[in-house]
Design goal:
single chain, alpha+beta, four-stranded mixed sheet, 4 strands, about 65% helix, about 15% strand, elongated
Length: about 180
Amino acid sequence: MRGNIVARRYARALFALGQKEGQDVLLRYGKSLEAVCAVLEIAPKLFRIFSNPIFTVEEKKAILVKVLEKVEPEPMVRNFCFLLADKDRLAFLPEIKAYYGYLLDLAQGIVRGELFTAIELEEELKTEIAKKLEEQSKSKVVLDYKVDPSILGGLVLKVGDKVLDASIKAQLKILKENIKRGE
């Protein structure tokens, strides 16, 4: 829980700095954060080094310099990463990136969600579903489509903390409960 609070605080700080500069700067900061995290995800040992108190801040900064040379992020993001190193918060970079992305979506009016179906949907149907959701939510909707054969049919839609379960599996479960109660 503590890590989440720390990550949100740093993400909000970077976001606030970017907001002063404009929308395209916010996007560039987001891309730079993603690029840095992508390099670090390739080498998960680096995250263990960044979270290990045995390594000094100078050693962590030396590693960070090598990572940043490969990515060449925005100067503000570069300085931000060095600030994280000074404060021994580099291990929070993935969480910071995730929350920054969330803030960026809010600023752009984008709603993200997941749509689970029993079979792969055709692109035409995916587009139609997204369009209907955009009309209802009056926001741009970005869906991640996933196949889950265990739902048997129908769909399960997760957007934020809301879940719409219109799957056959859920309907059968409700029917089973009704039969148990004698309805």
